[in-house]
Structures are given as C-alpha cells and as structure tokens.
Automatic annotation (TrEMBL):
Keywords: ATP-binding, Kinase, Nucleotide-binding, Serine/threonine-protein kinase, Transferase. ATP binds at residue 70. The keyword Cell membrane does not apply. It comes from Oryza sativa subsp. japonica. This is Os07g0494800 protein. Residues 42-307 form the Protein kinase domain. The lineage of its organism: Eukaryota, Viridiplantae, Streptophyta, Embryophyta, Tracheophyta. It holds the Pfam family PK_Tyr_Ser-Thr. GO terms for molecular function: ATP binding; protein serine/threonine kinase activity.
Amino acid sequence: MGDWYEKLSQSFRDTANEVLAKADIDPNVRCFTRRQMKHITNNYGTVLGKGGFSVVYKGKLDNGRSVAVKQYNWRTQEKEFTKEAIIQSQCSHRNIVRLLGCCVEADAPMLVTEFVPNGNLSELLHGKSGQLPVSLETRFQIALDVAEALVYMHCSQNHPILHGDIKPSNILLGDKHVAKLCDFGISRLLCMDNDEHTGFVIGSKGYMDPVYCETGRLSPKCDVYSFGVVLLELITRKKGIDDQSRNLAGMFARSSRDKRHELFDKEIAADENIDFIEEIANLALDCLKSEIEDRPQMKEVLKQLWSIKRSEILRQERRLAELRERRIMTLREIKVMLRGSGFERFVTKAT
C-alpha cells in the first residue's frame, strides 16, 4: 500500500497508547483486533447508520451481547478517535452509552459500545414511517434523562466535558424509552474555571449555540443552548431546523404567547396540559438566551425540570380531587331526586 499506509499505521499505534493504557486500567474497556471485529460484526453485515466521518454497524460479542461498532473512515484524524475513546471511557452513567472496547489497528479504528435497541429521538418524533403517538410523560422523561447525563458530564468529572453536539439523533432510546447520549466525536475536556476558545467551529446547524458559532467560545452552556432546542422539539414535534431552513429556536423566541401555543404539538396540547407545556417552554427559552451568562447551568436546568414535574403532579392530584368531589355531588343530587320523586326505598340501594 505504500509509505502513506505505513505512516498512518504508525500514527495510529502511537496515538492509541492512551486508549490501550485506559483499557489496561479499566476491565470494562477491551481492545479488539481487526480479525475479531470482522467476526463481531459478521463481516460488517448490518449497517445501523452512516455519518460524515464514520459508519455504525450492529455486532454481537462471544457472550451473545449485542453491540454497536463505530468505524471511522480514512479522513478522520487519529487524535479525534483517541479523544472520543478516552472521553467516553471516563463516563459511567445510565443515560450515557457505555464504551465496551476499541480497535486501534490503522485501517480499522473502531469503538465498540452497548447496543441501544429502539432507535433515536429524531426517529421517534419525525420517523419516515409516520408519526406514532408519544405521550407528554414520555417526552418529559426523555428530557430528564438527557439533563441527568449532561449534569454528570459537566459536574462529575475532574474537568467538565462539553458534549458539543446535543441533538435528537444523538439521543438513543432503550427499553421504556430510557434516553442515552451518544456520539462524543466533537466532545471536549474543558478547564474547570475558564471558558476556552477555538478557531475550528463544528456542530449541527439549528442546535449550535450562536455565540459559539460567532466567537468560537467553548462553555458547558453551549450544551445548555442545544438542550433548549431539544426541549422545544419535544413539545412542538418540529425539527430544530426544517427543510425550508427555518430555525425552531428563533421562530419560537420571536412568537407571541398565543403563537407559541399554536406551535405546540396538538397531540399533547390538551387544556389540562397547557400549564405543564408552558413551563417547559419557558425553561427552554431560558436555555436559549443570547447572553451565555444569562443561561442557567445544567444542574439548575435539571433542578427546574424536577420542580416542573412536582408542580404537574400537584395539578393532577387537584384534578383527581375535583373529580371525586363532583362524583360525590352527583350522588347527592341523585338521592335528592329519588326522594323528591317518591322513590325513597331506592336511596339505600343507589348508594
């Protein structure tokens, strides 16, 4: 294959040292050979998805466990592969896809992760086979799951981890729609106290923080902005950027209160849900504020989500109490009617 292949091979071997060192320390992260990967993927027979820099295959380990295998293409820099492997290996959370292993041979740089069986949030909300009903409760729980994962990434490590690409297609759905973040290809380890800047701006249109796009400023609040777009997508069932390049965040922020109600997904926008949805929408708008300093941190967003959930539970309890009271009043009215009609002997039976 020539000198270029040998140089690339050596480059991957050099930069893979960090990954291999991590694999030696962490028994949950294994190192596979190219031959093993071919066996695991059944000769790369089942494609789960394709991106600009990688292809994802379905596979199965010798113990029968289903896995996803992400294979990078030739143009992916080895440092990006190594960085993603190290960052993901440091994350252990129920709402983050778990890294199980990697392959660092030059012509087959791959990551092996747990297989999440029920597609992603984008498919759930905008699937080509038609929109299936998705309850407000399910949507809200997905938002909670993603918020829990981001709080873990931003606050539970020695250095904050910026995901950098929060969007519905990077939110996988497991059993009972448990949400799991995936795709750490552009994630970054940040300094503890100071924001950073980059001249290489990358992300997904419609979900990227405008401040980051204009200035290259990196902050955990870039993820907060993207999460705000996802919140709007959950309650409107409209894409972050549609086929006419209309931006959901901008469209929603510019709308009046009545116009925002028109944007809510009619499937969930029943009268009894409006207060609940409005609270979610207001939180999303806080996340989307143009000034980074005015946005809440993810731990504050999570706290507010739990507060919204408690408020909704109280509203439901009040509605149930009102229904019980109405039932009691109706029984009393029946008793009065029976007595007034000379059917007193039926009152005991009716009660």
